[in-house]
Amino acid sequence: MGKKGPSSGLKRKPSPRFWPIHRKEFAWIVKPTSGPHSLEICMPLAVVVRDALGFAKTRKEAKTILSQGKIHVNGKIRKKDDFPVGLLDVISIPDAGKNYRILPSYKGLVLNEISNEESMFTLSRIEDKTILSKSDTQLHLHDGSSILLKVADPKSSQDVYETLDTLKISLPDRQILEHARMKEKDYALITGGKNVGKYGKIIEIEKAQGKKRRNALVTIKDDRDRQYQTVLNFVFAIGETQPLITLKEDAPVV
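^ thats the sequence. predicted structure below, dont judge the formating
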């Protein structure tokens, strides 16, 4: 009988390079389950708890901690050790008084420690939007979730949300607190490409015809007047007058 479904196992060698694990100590590692982030840009909670944060020495200990409901992801208790966490997710450990936000880095993803106040919200980029009816518009976000809006006329000026804009969303009730547009003079974070992890103000967004908007070139300048260029698809708006989140470019790699 042939194999049915995808493989449930993952060997250490082909796992993403930014995972903080020994490649040759053991053969297997926890494979993230299907969820809000793809395998290449996420980590399973077992790796975060055991290898990144050091709260456990074995997978069994990590599973025990998770099964007791001690780890919150974006305001919700997650008990599965293979649950994937990724870009801008908030991980909270109330018993330890620790909160972390996952940020991009030139070596992968990093855990950046944040305050309790900042752990009460997350940022999500609008990847697409769907008009469901005359009064309902659904926003599809980068983390696989969606938000349903009640708009009198989705095609009128009341619908102010555009693709690639960023929403500041409260946790865990997921209410929209602020709206950051993808436009020049706003702060942005680079999430992919050779300049991943850099951030600054958007100086220019290319207005080239005959090119997909996501492929438009964007120029970003940081506080030291260094300029970076990437495509719009790798740019994440994070605030108008100042960044909405705490950023740490040289944070330790997870």
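The chain has three domains: 10-116, 120-180, 187-239.
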